[in-house]
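Dear colleague,

Thank you for sharing your sequence with our group. We've completed the structure prediction you requested, and as agreed, I am returning the results in plain text so they can be pasted directly into your records. Please verify that the sequence below matches your submission; if there's any discrepancy, let me know and we will rerun it promptly.
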Amino acid sequence: MRNQWLRLLLLRCHTPSQPRVAQVHHLRSFTSAILHPRAPHVTPKPFPLRHHFASSPASAVYPPKPLSDEAVQLVDAFAKSGGSVDEIKLDLDLKNVIVTHDLILSVLGHPDTDSDAAKRIFDWVLESQSEKLSSKSYNLILKIFSRNGLVKETWDMIESMKTKGFGVSKGAFIEMSEKFQKDGLSSDVEKLNELFASGSKNNASKLNDLEKICWSITKIVKSEVWGDVVEKQLLEVGAKFSSDLVTKVLENLEIDPNKALIFFRWLEGSDLFEHDQRSYNAMARVLSKEDHTEKFCRFVNEMRSEGHEMQRDTYVRILESFVKRKMMKDAVDLYEFAMIGGNKPSSQDCIFLLKKIVVDEELDMDLFSKVLGIFKASGNVLTDSNLDSIIKSLTSVGKMTECNGILSAMEEHGYVPSDSSRSKIAFKLSKGGKTEEAREFMDNLSTTRNASDYGTWVSLVKGYCEARNLDEASRSFREMVEKEGASFGAQPLLDLLVVTYCREDKPLDAYKFVSEMVNDKGLSPWNATYKTLTSKLLTERMYFKEAIDVMTMMKNQDYAPDLASFVKYLSKTGSAEEAIVFTQAMSSKRFPSTDVFLRLFDAYLKAGRKSEAQDFLSKCPSYIKSHADVLELFYSRKSRGTKTKAVAVAV
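Please find the predicted structure tokens below.
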């Protein structure tokens, strides 16, 4: 009986009770298969086989799932009015949205997707990445046009599909027909029926014939258990098998990979068609489905041994499928397989895979490092942009604790992060409360670099300040001063620390820290820093002595005292004794100028604290007591008060 081995294959496919035994026991590395030319009849390096795949759940009807975060971001980017193509691309890059075939299908096929945004997305992909649009993509946009009553756009799209060899699917035909009938478009209904009744999804006669034959073959293969009857019926079709026909039949059989493979082998064994790269890739896409991964692994190795490469579209679709099904080890093996072939994945593909690895439920650093090794072995170099993308993915799933391991692995594979990238990591760790990881990061930094890391220290302290973790902020600042010295320009960061302390109502801690930095470390804070600290200390009545000490530090740096803060405090709540202490401390002489006393007296009197003003005057030196301007100030206030009382009595 012809093709007896097909019967055996079919029996295996329909005998669940029979144990399945792997036929490949020893795997060689991908690299060795490339380095050593393939001799005739020598088995090529096999794609690794794994046995951990779960069966697909039984078919069921579910409500539409919400769009993924990436899909929502894609729709939002195109829903904004007025954005140019370049602006949209930049927006997507910043959000780490990678446009894939599956992402396009999920957006176009979701009932909640805005029609205008869907059309803009489709047009943008068509112009810039047309290889990611399939027949299914075109049929989904057809449904959107029809659903929204865009009759002209619907027919224009059908004409465009004809030029690409795509046809109207049955689902799209039914939806368009119902919409046309509902809207009373009888001529369009008739035109659509004629198109579909012709037995083709394309009006060109050649494509009509191809589609008719394709569906005839598909129906024969699907409807019967493979045997002599099926083979006889296939031969009676009288088809001239071409790449287009075989590829379409295999795609139609994707829900039954076993029958697709039997059909593929039957063609091969019957000498009816010599398989080429297109048919091999179509078969590979079918076999990559769940529960058929072992067949897929053997098949792609056979494909390469026959001199055919995996096409870009095939790689992308299968990789996305593996990732979606959480088959990360297989996704990495596929990446390795593709990287030693003729159609190497792009740098973006590598980063896509790395991002998916880091957001997986359990981060597998062995897989992460393996991808990096494959990437580097092909002559690629990791960049800051790559690191940024991976860090954003880590952050999105709350895994910044893994940052040091990620960075270390990248550095082991030749990556040298810039100061900017290091600063971003330091900030994210400290702001995110990852204290231990932040310390580990800075320790690693100090052991691997000799140059100044001032910028990284600054970012670290800023992150702690934003997180209001002042203990770690001050500790890190001290360590920074120890490593970088006192003359490296720490004033802005010290100012930030003081402001943060004050906002947290901890002026005394701020004072102690500034005193330590000035007196023990030799730092010279800004005048504004001193003023901020003085004002906050005087707001708390118990810290007058500390405020005076701050004024002394200001004098040592030739800064003028913060007169405004002291006058405000003394006039409202300060005692005469404190006023004397202030005037004696603010000048290198015994007392300051008469103007300072006049300003204090005036403030006391305006605040209605006449007795405190007189008490202060009594403690002043004689040249102040007898000064004409001082006497005039008190006399004018007294006269004004007397007149006010007289007016009150008269009334």
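Summary note from our side: The radius of gyration is 39 Å.

Kind regards,
the structure core
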